[in-house]
Fold each of these.
Amino acid sequence: MSLLSIILQAVAESGSGLIALGAGLGAGLAAIGAGLGIGKIGGSAMEGVARQPEASGKIQTMMIIIAALIEAVALFAAVICLLISFNI
């Protein structure tokens, strides 16, 4: 049974199947995006400290602040997806 037939069957039974599927995919994409963003920040911070070790304090502070902002956006996206899926 293909994925498309499963999705079509879920939609035929109740129209809210795609809503739950979209909310799940949205939450997953938000988590993947946050992971990629924080990984990019960590790699860039390591490069910056390697190039200028005397600036490691400033780099670390900015890295933590930006990582917290990315996590906040990802959490916000996950909460929105949960609200969408429960409001079926």
Amino acid sequence: MGDERYANDGQYTVQGVVTAFRVVEAVHNLDGAGTTELADQLDLSKGAVHKHLKTLEQLGYLVRRDDAYHVGLRFLNLGLDARRRSDLYSVARSSVETLAGNAGERAFLVVAEAEEAVVLYSVDEGSYDAGGTEGKRLPLQTSVPGRAILAHRPDLQSDDITSEQKSALRQIRDQGYALGTEPSLGVSSRCIAAPIVDLEDRAVAALCVIGTSGSLSGKRFEEDVTGLVFSEAKTIEAHLLSA
């Protein structure tokens, strides 16, 4: 419903697959739902929704509890396996853990995927609660980690980016990190993100720290923790380039 990801280009889209994933994501967003609620939410017939729900249940991707369908743990297996196969995750995991410990805050690794920034790994050593951070998808152009990644992309000259955005991204590229509030990960949160770049100086990920406006402020925010993030990001880059 209004999600451009589901637009049918008339060439490669299999509408049944699109509908199945719309159902799954609606079940997730509603934290469990029944046939009638989903039909209303997705503007589909109850018969069509029922067929998709039963099929997804039989395959183990949805489970039924108390007359409502919920996302099943089969997705957990797929996601964890995809992360395990990531070279970046293998290389960066220890740095994320080190950063969280040294900063005394939540540290996380974000990767660029399909024009979004996805939290691949997260470790919490602070009091900031960003529950369910792993797997969260953040917008590239407006999130702090996303801007750190975009600043090291060759498409910085794209017409889709305004002059003001380009100027801000150039500043991030020059200083080597991005700072700011991060509403997509919670109210009153502050975030520091440093890009992780490949041999072509193109950002493939970002290393970040997030905390409250109280725990991350002044010199600690702008210098101390920022230096820790920048240093560990460079450590990850060195390991990637030598792998």
